[in-house]
Every structure is written in C-alpha cells, then in structure tokens.
Amino acid sequence: MRALLYRHVLRKVYDNRFKRYGGSPEGCFWTSRKKQTARFRIILTQLKSIVAEEKVSVADIGCGYGAMADYILVENSGILDSYIGYDISKVLIKQCINRIGSPKVRFLLGEYPRQNVEFSLMSGTYNLAVTENIAHWETYVFRCLGACWKKTNRAMIFNLQVTKRAKPYISKGNIYYASCQKIVDRCNFFFGPTETIKDPALPLDTTFVVKKEMSRSI
Which stretch of DSSP H or E encloses residue 73? Predict the structure, then answer.
C-alpha cells in the first residue's frame, strides 16, 4: 500500500512540475542542464565500458521528458539497438511520444521494464522523496530496483545523491541523500557485485554499476 501511495504522490508532483516548467531540466527537478548531461555521460561511459562495440537494448526508468533519449540519440546512437523510456506520469510519457520520433525509441507508462533488456538505467529517478521516513523510502527504492533487476540481463546503472554524514537523510527540500556504503552493501546482497563511480563534476553524486553475476532475487 505504501508503494502505491508513493507512486500516486510522485505522479502528481511531476505532473504539476511539468505543467509549470515544461520539458526542461527544471521540469524534472534538475538544477541545471550541465549537471543533467554530466550524469548521462557517466552512465553511458559505464555502459560502453561493458559492451564495447555491441548494440544494446536499454530501459530508461524515470525518463521524464526524454532528456536521456535525446542524449543517447545525439551522442551515442551507434550503441543503440532499442530504447524504451518508462515513467509513472502519463503527462510526461505523452510529451515524449509527441516530441521524439525515432524507430529505435519507445515510451511506456511504468516504473520498471515490461520486457527483458540488457541495461536498466536510472538517472535521478530516486532522488526526490515523498516521505520524511528514510527507512520507508529506502524500502521503496530497493523494491523498484528489484523489479528492474528481474528484467535486466547485463547490468543496472543508477545514480544517487550521497552524504558524508554517518547516516542517510532526507533534506527539507525532500531530496534523498544516501549512504554510499549502505547502498553498496544492499546491492551486493540482493543483486550482485556493485561498483561505484565518482566524478569531480558531480561531487554529491555516486553512480552505481551492478552487473548480472551470481545475483539473488529481492
């Protein structure tokens, strides 16, 4: 029941944000296009380090107004066999469908892949919390990650804001700041070997790369 409530609240929040700011970084709570693009660059760099020259299928979870699809089509179209963007907002999905026309790209309503893909990607998907209860939010995040993992054949790559404090917390602005080590420990336990990537351009971010090796179901 809690997960349903969170989805309902998140959908309303993102719908209202889009109505106010439209298809822009601000419309999905990004602080700037530069940081948004930096996150995409890091995720796609990690993907390419795994597949080399292969063409792959990708699910973009929490695709928003389609910014990652734009980035992949412009900067990395050579690696793409297929892309499916998923979001819980019908407003955002409709906007993506109307705006982006590519035979390699589709957009669907949802919070995890409907079909198996080689890579599940999440950029900023779980940063905005709709509760002040950190334990409840982390349970929700890992439930979502677990659903994605079941449909992922090669790797799951996602980023989170992280804290240097002893414990994770949710800010007054409802931003979730994770404990990097706690996320790694839980990913190692539930999914498989997990790597972390830090980049000077995003000092508060960590990117997590979980490869499909000897996984456990969540």
Answer: helix 67-75
Residues 6+ apart with CB under 8 A from 149: 120, 156, 190, 191, 210, 215, 218
Nearest to 133 by CA among 124, 141, 125: 141
**DSSP assignment of 173-204:** T-BEEB-HHHHHHHHHHHT--EEEE--TT-TT
Measured distance between the N- and C-terminal CA atoms of the chain, rounded to whole angstroms? 18
Locate the DSSP E strands across 110-193. 117-122, 152-161, 169-170, 176-177
CB atoms inside a 10 Å sphere around CB 62? 25
CB 207 within 8 A of CB 159: yes
Are 111 and 93 within 8 A, CB to CB? no
What lies within 8 Å, CB to CB, of 120 at 6+ separation is 58, 59, 61, 112, 113, 148, 149, 151, 152, 155, 156, 157, 158
Longest dimension (CA), the chain: 47
Whole-angstrom Cα distance, residue 47 to residue 23? Answer: 26
HSE-up (13 A, CA, CB side) for residue 145: 30
What is the pLDDT, as a whole number, of residue 78? 86
User: What is the mean predicted confidence (pLDDT) over 91-108?
Assistant: 94
Question: In the prediction, which pLDDT does 214 show?
Answer: 45
What is the signed CA dihedral for 181, 143, 191, 188, rounded to 10 degrees? 20
pTM (predicted TM-score): 0.93
CB atoms within 10 A of CB 38: 16
Asked if residues 218 and 145 have their Cβ atoms less than 8 Å apart, the reply is yes
